[in-house]
Amino acid sequence: MLRFSMMMICTICIGCAGTGMKKAATPPSLLWRVQVPDGTQSYVFGTIHVRDSSIFMQRDSILILMQRCKDLYAELNLDSAASSLDPSAMMIPGGKTLKDLYSPADYDLIMKALKEKLGPMAVMADMLKPAAIVALLSLDGMETTADQGMDEFLWSEARRRGLDGRSLETVDEQLSALDAMPNEMLTEFVKSMGEQDSSSKALLKAYIGEDLSSIDDQMKELDAYGQFSAAINTRRNARMADRLQAVMRSKPVFVAVGAAHLPGSKGLLAELRERGFLVSPVLGGRRLDIRTMK
């Protein structure tokens, strides 16, 4: 269902993984070892961009192995991403509004959803791009039980442990990928908003269970939108792998990107294998709230 897929875009990662792998092909692990044939080992961990306490019940090996690395690579530099975002990049260009993009019936449907979520502030969203409205409605509907998401926690924890924080993408590159979202996806998203609670629970269950195969299966719905799927996942995964390969050959690094980037025949793990790395799941370890680890 589209409601789940669009929420995944806004929470597991801005982008998502490619498809094509069967369940048995992706072991249940969010943590993966990426090894150069000569022995240098880096690690890739799948994050989720929601602030829910349950996501921090993870294996202690995550932070233990992070400590062995030189740098942390995330999708964005979280120290500067917010300040580098140009608000105008979220606006429909040419002075247009949502009314210029949708039929009267679809426009009314979208504005009704915005008013239910934002009240009088809904009128200010009339100039936002469709992808920005999807993100706004998705994140607004999620319950918050933690003061950080996994990506934020790992970024701050890495810096506390002496690792340099680096980015794999720029804000402009991520926004460009979102711009490829077809307008009709917002309409379909709004029509299925009532499924949000069950979708949120399914998403968290898959993540907590380290079930990359289920996450990959849920994302297959985006295959119906070929150009958007290519922009939001395939090209981004390849770009991240290109930027990581030279780094991983020179030093051990810890990579923390949205979990849906990892699986699939065009996912980040497969892209790293194609570049000559040995990629394998890291299993075992003691499960606990990793926020309590010193």
The tally of beta strands, per DSSP, is 8
The helix-strand sequence is HEEEHEHHHHHEHHHHHEHEE
Q: Tell me, briefly, the overall form.
A: globular
Strand order of the largest sheet: 5-4-6-2-1-7
Low-confidence stretches: 1-7, 11-24
SS field, number of helical segments: 13
Strand content: 5-15%
Determine the fraction of residues in helical runs and give it as a percent range. 40-55%
Round the mean pLDDT to the nearest integer and report it: 87
What is the SS-derived class?
Answer: alpha/beta
**Compute the gyration radius: what is it?**
19 Å
- Spatial gap, N to C terminus: 41 Å
Largest sheet: 6 strands, mixed
Secondary-structure blueprint of this entry?
Layout: H1 2-11, E1 31-35, E2 41-47, E3 57-59, H2 61-66, E4 71-74, H3 81-84, H4 98-101, H5 104-118, H6 130-140, H7 150-160, E5 164-167, H8 171-178, H9 184-191, H10 196-208, H11 212-219, H12 226-250, E6 253-258, H13 268-274, E7 278-281, E8 287-289
Helix pairs in contact: 1-6, 1-10, 5-9, 6-9, 8-12, 12-13
Note down, in words, how this protein is organized.
Helices cover 44% and strands 12% of the residues. The protein is built from 13 helices and eight strands. The chain has a six-stranded mixed beta sheet, with helices on both faces. A two-stranded antiparallel sheet has the order 3-8. It is globular, with a radius of gyration of 19 Å. The termini are far apart.
Could you list some keywords that capture this structure?
8 strands, 13 helices, globular, disordered N terminus, six-stranded mixed beta sheet
